[in-house]
Amino acid sequence: MIHQIHGIVWGPAMLIALIALGIIYSIRSGFFQIRKMGYWWRTTAGSLWNAGKSGSDKGSGSDSSGNKSRANDKHSVTKVQAACTALAATVGTGNIVGVATALTAGGPGAIFWMWVSAAIGMMTAYAETSLGIRYRYRNAENRWICGPMVYLEKGLHMPWLGLLYSIFCILSSLGMGSMVQSNAIAETMNYTFGAAPLAVGLVLAVLVLIVIWGGIGRIAYVSERLMPVSAGIYIIFSLVVIFSCYDRIPLVVGQILKSALAPEALLGGVGGYGISRSLRYGIARGVFSNEAGLGSLAILHGAAEDTTPEEQGMWAMFEVFFDTVIICTLTALVILCMTTEGLDNVFYDGAALTTFCFERRLGDVGRYLVSGSMLVFAFATIIAWYYLGRQTVAYVLDRLGRKFVFIKRNEKWLEKLYLLLYLDAVYLGCISSLKTVWELSDIWNGLMAVPNMIALVFLMREVTFPKEPGR
């Protein structure tokens, strides 16, 4: 029964709807993601150089609502920290597992269609993030409340749909964001180092508690330092493998382009893009690698100060680009360069295939690199998804607290109850078999996309696109 529901939720209709929505926004923007690539790159990744020198990302000013900036309070983060937190949620084990599965399912041409799908998804990510910043508000505790649930209530005036989205998001955080990620960590630690799942679960739960107890400030602080280093190491070693067989690069590029028009490559590419997201646990799991369309990026960017809907939307575009076009492409090139005998003659799939290819060139270092990357990516996803879940819990409590005095009086205790549930999910994920939880989590993720897409359709006129200065 669960398998059938999963097939319906993540069937062709869902993929077509998400891609169609991205195409519509691309057309409305004049294909901003392509024509203005230099501008949005300078505004996002390129701005990091200047931010480091001038500290402009931490200055004072006004937020998107015209209020005095409070970037230094414990409930706010800088634009860069918000972006790193979003990257922590989107760059996951699926960048290692999902890409390998897409290539074995659709051949080398799958990577081409992953690029196409990512280009389209960039504008969906832009739209939901800019709407999130536009409609966000501060609650009684001075905490930013942001996400699809907010623009569903305030933009579409459909609070019941916002509550429905919140329920799906909370369920996803307990499954996809915690249990499945911690299960990946436990399996990796057991396979690589022989660590007992029980011990891994206890240590991991404590580490997660230490980070998330500090709220969004500490989560963003850890993400800001964890993601650039871990992603940078993965990129460097990937380039080492790729350029060590530089003579194969033209052949691999030719294979990608030649097989891109094959029907099986198209299906594999769309699947690989859709799945290489977090848990990111492979094509059959059916979740989008960069979460464009799920609405989660709108929540993750909600605490950013000194920003505008347009600017934070461009940061979301950058994350989609970085997650899929850079990280996923590097994984694909490593696999294609190292499988000289062809994918059909390699008897590996998923993480095993990626590990095999790195190990083939780097030896034991390659095996530890893949294992280490999966550990760091999964841990980063766990702490980022806690913030996602807590934001939606805060919204639900704020919304219901207006009508029920009991909820208003016990709001802090109910938030602590969610914290305990999340830590329990992290621990249980390490010691349990999660086949059913995987499929249920994918279902919750897919259902998150439905109300979000409704909002993106009916609030389309509310989304404005940036104009490059001097143009």
Instruction: Supply the CATH superfamily name.
Output: Amino acid/polyamine transporter I
Unreliable stretches = 52-72, 272-288
CATH class group: Mainly Alpha
- How many separate structural domains? 1
Helix proportion of residues, in percent? over 70%
Q: If you consult CATH, what is the topology? A: Amino acid/polyamine transporter I
What can you see in these coordinates?
This protein has 471 residues and is mainly alpha-helical. It has one domain (77-459): Amino acid/polyamine transporter I, CATH 1.20.1740. The chain is built from 21 helices and 2 strands. The chain has helices at residues 2-9, 12-28, 32-35, 37-43, 47-54, 79-90, 94-106, 110-135, 148-154, 159-193, 197-212, 215-244, 249-259, 263-275, 296-300, 309-338, 350-362, 364-401, 405-409, 411-431, 435-458, and strands spanning 137-138, 144-145. Strands 1-2 form a two-stranded antiparallel sheet. A hairpin with a 5-residue loop joins strand 1 (137-138) and strand 2 (144-145). Helix 1 packs parallel to helix 21 (435-458) and helix 16 (309-338) crosses helix 17 (350-362). The radius of gyration is 21 Å and the shape is globular. Mean pLDDT is 79; it is low at 52-72 and 272-288.
